[in-house]
Amino acid sequence: MTDTRAANRRGMIFMVLAMALFAANDAGTKFAVQVIPVSEVMVLRGGFALIFLALVLWWRGELRDTPKIFDWQVSLRGFAEAMNGVLLISALALIPLGNVITIIQLVPFIMTIIAAASLGERVGWRRWIAVTAGFAGVLFVVKPATGAFDAASLFALIATFTILLRDMLARSIGTRVPAFIVALASILAGIVVGAAGSFFQPWRWPDAVALTGCLASGIFLVLAQYFIVLAYRGTELSAVAPFRYSIVLFAVVYGFIFFREVPDLWSFAGMTIMIVAGVYMLHREAMRSRDATMGTK
Questions:
Q1: Over the Cα atoms of the chain, what is R_g?
Q2: Full residue range of the structural domain in which residue 149 is found
Q3: pLDDT band, very low/low/confident/very high, at 166 (cuts 50, 70, 90)
């Protein structure tokens, strides 16, 4: 029990660190996309990430596993991640960082609906209330049918489905492919998609801000992948997973510090509702899993 508690504490720290790095990756990307087009950001960010990841794979002795990127599920997940990158970078170019991060927190709520509708999973009324609250929180942030609505929010909303596809494929891949090899496939797919986008978007010579943003973003992205793997290693999901929502706080803080973005009261309310609903839904899921485990003993 003591070992589990210690592992959970480490997992919580690693999860918060991973979320801080993921949000920092988005902040660096937002700096770059203000200067150069989306496709160019994907190639430059991917190039820097590829160099850094190659060093990590060499250090970990996992270069021999690189042919596994051609596994069809790994490749498909990579391109899902690449399309997710296109959508999120497009959103980051136009709307506040905190709004983008909040909107994509819809993923677990959508996954619950799919599990109930397609997989026959029983979802209790409490979780349905949490799902409803989660969608209400996003409506507060997006503010449709009002003058404050920004159509660029649709990029982030559509991205929730590419994230969902990516995460479902990650579950299918499991542990048979090292996490950094999966990340390598995503980075390479992003570079390919970004290069293809150059036929539709004229590239511009990047200045120091764009290059620094892409460099920082690429490094932060690889480190975030590493720490999120550590966060789940030997820990209890119910203890660690709620700390994923710390990414919203980091996004708001980075948005204010670097871009002077201050969410309005409706957005703050939406963010709060979504975080509370998400954490509560994870709590209910943990209770359901615990009850099921006890019932089989």
A1: 19
A2: 2-295
A3: confident
